[in-house]
């Protein structure tokens, strides 16, 4: 937060976004998105729906053909708030360009005016939280895909952003570290960090979002609303070429209020194991 920051303004406010690929194919077509401070939002849609492109537009990595994006009620210039806004796209290797993982994690804080030792302390804290301690001295190109994704996330977090935009954040991450990443995202949002996650995975959405922006196959918004409302509308999801969460499908027709996750179903039914 900066002096004079209007805390009632959305973290991200996008209006009328349009973007076409070089061949003229529309990727994002007339999208409006508003993300409140501290909100958790999922950009959900099938492959090819424009989710990744929309995430890059919201993060200021690419310029829209039409429309505007404003940040924190202050500016339409993403670079002006880059130390408050961290964006990770699908390829984690794009964010790992230094000789070692430690240097990649330290790169962002090095651009900030931090007290002596604070950058190193941030690197240690984030590395420990994401179980990267033993990888800090390694060259990033020698990491597995899942390790690279965790290292890229760590590099985004060491700047301590107010808003975090992630494209498929647990793709390629093994089961144990997947839970580590998701728990950390919970901690960040509990602390007030704004989170936007792009994913085609309806099973992931309840773990990372309270609200969903659902895209159809043509880069348009098909619906937006609370996670439960969107994920239990099986007809809407099917129309958008998405498979409803497994538990929702299992409870379909049995209740008007199905659980969204296996854990919630277990709590609902009572775990006799």
From TrEMBL:
It is a peripheral membrane protein. GO terms for cellular component: ATP-binding cassette (ABC) transporter complex. Belongs to the ABC transporter superfamily. PANTHER family: ENERGY-COUPLING FACTOR TRANSPORTER ATP-BINDING PROTEIN ECFA1 (PTHR43553:SF24), HEAVY METAL TRANSPORTER (PTHR43553). It comes from Halosimplex carlsbadense 2-9-1. It comes from the Archaea. SUPFAM superfamilies: P-loop containing nucleoside triphosphate hydrolases. Probably part of an ABC transporter complex. Responsible for energy coupling to the transport system. One of its GO terms (molecular function) is ATP binding. Pfam families: ABC_tran (PF00005). InterPro entries: AAA+_ATPase (IPR003593), ABC_transporter-like_ATP-bd (IPR003439), ABC_transporter-like_CS (IPR017871), ABC_transpr_CbiO/EcfA_su (IPR015856), ECF_ABC_transporter_ATP-bd (IPR050095), P-loop_NTPase (IPR027417). It is found in: Cell membrane. Residues 12-243 form the ABC transporter domain. Keywords: ATP-binding, Membrane, Nucleotide-binding, Transport. This is Cobalt ABC transporter ATP-binding protein. Its main location: membrane.
């Amino acid at each position: 937060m900066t002096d004079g920051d209007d805390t009632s303004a959305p973290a991200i406010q996008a209006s009328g976004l349009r973007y076409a690929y070089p061949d003229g194919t529309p990727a994002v077509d007339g999208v409006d998105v508003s993300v409140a401070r501290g909100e958790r939002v999922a950009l959900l849609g099938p492959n090819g729906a424009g989710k990744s492109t929309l995430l890059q537009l919201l993060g200021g990595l690419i310029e829209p053909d039409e429309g505007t994006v404003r940040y924190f009620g202050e500016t339409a210039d993403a670079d002006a708030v880059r130390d408050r806004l961290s964006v990770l796209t699908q390829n984690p290797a794009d964010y790992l360009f230094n000789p070692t993982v430690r240097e990649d994690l330290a790169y962002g804080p090095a651009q900030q005016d931090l007290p002596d030792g604070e950058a190193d302390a941030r690197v240690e804290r984030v590395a420990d939280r994401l179980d990267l301690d033993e990888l800090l001295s390694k060259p990033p190109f020698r990491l597995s895909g899942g390790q690279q994704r965790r290292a890229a996330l760590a590099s985004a977090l060491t700047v301590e952003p107010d808003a975090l935009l992630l494209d498929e954040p647990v793709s390629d991450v093994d089961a144990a570290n997947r839970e580590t990443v998701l728990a950390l995202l919970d901690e960040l949002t509990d602390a007030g960090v704004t989170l936007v996650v792009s994913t085609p995975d309806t099973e992931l959405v309840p773990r990372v979002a309270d609200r969903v922006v659902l895209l159809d196959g043509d880069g348009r918004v098909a619906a937006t609303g609370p996670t439960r409302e969107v994920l239990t509308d099986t007809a809407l999801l099917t129309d958008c070429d998405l498979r409803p969460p497994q538990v929702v499908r299992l409870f379909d027709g049995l209740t008007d209020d199905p659980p969204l996750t296996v854990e919630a179903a277990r709590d609902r039914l009572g775990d006799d194991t």
